[in-house]
Amino acid sequence: MNKFLISFLALPLIAACTPTVKVEAPDKPIEINMNVNIEHHVKVEIDRDVQTAMKNNKDIF
User: Fold this and answer.
1) SS3 letters across 11-37
2) Burial annotation 17-54 (CB, 10 A radius, 16+ → b, else e)
3) Is the pTM of this model over 0.85?
4) Phi, psi (5° rounding) for residue 3?
5) What is the pLDDT of residues 7-33, one digit of tens each?
6) How far, in whole angstroms, is CA 34 from its chain's centroid?
């Protein structure tokens, strides 16, 4: 009888300690800001021999 009384009194304490997980939708919509600035610099170096060949033969390109 004593074990039954202890388990009966401990039941509300154990039930009060159970974790609760709530999943709710946000009030405002999710906003993703995609302001992306992409810059690139291309550096081309031409050998002097190629430069002189281009100057002498303008019909190459």
Assistant:
1) HHHHHHCCCCCCCCCCCCCCCCCCCCC
2) eeeeeeeeeeeeeeeeeeeeeeeeeeeeeeeeeeeeee
3) no
4) -65, -40
5) 777 777 776 666 778 888 888 998 888
6) 12
